[in-house]
Fold this protein.
Amino acid sequence: MPAYQGQRTLLVCLLALALMWADQNYSIVQTLRFAAGYVLYPAQQAALIPSSIAGWFSELGTARQDLLDENRQLSARNLVLELKAQRLASLEAENAELRELLSASEQVDDKVLVTTVVAIDPDPFSQQVLINKGSENGVFIGQPVLDAYGLLGQVVDVLPFSSKVMMIADSNHAIPVQINRNGVRAIATGTGALDQLELIYVPNTADIKEGDLLVSSGLGGRYPRGYPVAVVDRVEHQAGQMFASVTARPSAHLDRSRLLLLVFSQGAGKVPSKDLWKGAR
């Protein structure tokens, strides 16, 4: 058998050499080879099908992986851009709050110190917040606290680097006020709800209307005079009763103000002058 295979290989080689010699010397062989190309073309294409399919699947897999990689990159980039956009929105809101606070400080005759709310009291029956200024900054108990829109409350506890502020909506808080329109005096007490104060002991015949602005009267010496406190939103005169039922909405944004002003009036408290803002007179 090995001898037969060797003879067959020799015969094929001789035939190949003969065909090569004939191809070089006889044009008819070239014509036959050209014609054979038509006959063999389908077989050649059929032989290429497996490799074409393999290449197509390889390209498909590569393209899909590239798309997945690109999609992951775009998703990550989109997330980064969204975070930057959110941060930009936060900075814009903070700048707006600072501008409002600056505007408020220019309307205050006393010296003020800017502080930030760092925590809120989780007790649902207490409306108090923690700020990041304390005795080291000259903060003292009873010190008035404002936001950009009005009186927010007073300091009730002082630590070296932080203080607790009771807001005017706290049910334990009361402030002497007067109607800005005519000077009628009253006492505004907290109800425990951030959006409502109650005026007590208002005579049933008192000249008070919805929309009246209530400002601090300065009586009692705790709060400076003339700061916005609330706007009257309901007045009910009850026949046969000595006092009217009056509620008001706080001017300060008790539920969302983050930057606040600590007011230093008549030299109260000691605080480095570099930290103070002086309101324009």
User: Anything to note?
Assistant: The chain has two helices and 13 strands. The first strand starts at residue 111 and ends at 120.
